[in-house]
Amino acid sequence: MALVCALVVIVIAVAGYNLLPADTLPSRIFQLLGGQLPGGVIQFVTYFAFFWGIFEINERSHRITHEKKSFELGLLPEKEQWVLSPNDVNDLKLRMIDQEKNQRFLMTDIIKKACTKFRSNRSISDVIDVVSMQSKINMQRAEGSQSMVRYLAWAIPSIGFIGTILGIAGAMGYAGDAGTDEGIKLVTNALFVAFDTTLISLFLSIILMWFFHNLQEQEDVLHTDIEEYVIENLVNRIHVE
Predict the structure, then answer these.
(1) For residue range 94-137, what is the model confidence (pLDDT) as tens digits?
(2) Which single residue of 87, 105, 163, 186 could bond 70 by disulfide (Cβ 3.0 to 4.6 Å)?
(3) How many whole angstroms from its chain centre is CA 155?
(4) In angstroms, rounded to a whole number, what is the distance separating the alpha carbons of residues 39 and 25?
(5) Can you name the residues that pair with 84 across neighbouring β-strands?
(6) H or E stretch covering 61
(7) How far apart are CA 165 and CA 200, in angstroms?
(8) 35 to each of 39, 87, 200, 207, 225, how far by Cα in Å?
């Protein structure tokens, strides 16, 4: 999908640059977007990395939305002064096992492990440790799944800088012909490639980083809310004779 989106953008840019009158503002805009080949190849690679990152973030966002549905299932008692006995904890684990046959959630996994720990030694403090540790493990897994987005967010400006170096090198190659009108045009086009690639890459990097940091915030809030929900409605309600 990222490749298709990048192809669509670059095809539109090339068509607009070639169909519009030269040396006009619209033509210059399409040239900026990568409409002048072969210089536009750098923008194409930048678009590909950008859309790849966006689709990765979108996939993680859908996963977060899925996990939030667990709060609506009433997996744990939420009424005031509701107390759970050891038998209730055993029944709760069986309910989580049945629930995971239909849908798996991070919350059901934490509840199941907390109930298992309580059954082993009936220590509330150990149950809290299990909940906190599992929550940290889930957060670390979430951070690991974001590694590709972090790489793409770093790679996009780097691709732009590569285009800048290639453009400047191309302009220097035409320096000997700068005394002619055709030579000046070649030098100018090469410099356009140099600065356009950097401008596009920095602009797309800013957009991608905004979505990425928003994703990180959603991930952190999700795992914090799950941990708080389990401690409040499971751990704090267990009553041991």
Answers:
(1) 888 888 888 889 999 999 998 888 888 888 888 899 999 999 99
(2) 105
(3) 14
(4) 19
(5) 238
(6) helix 40-68
(7) 15
(8) 8, 69, 13, 21, 47
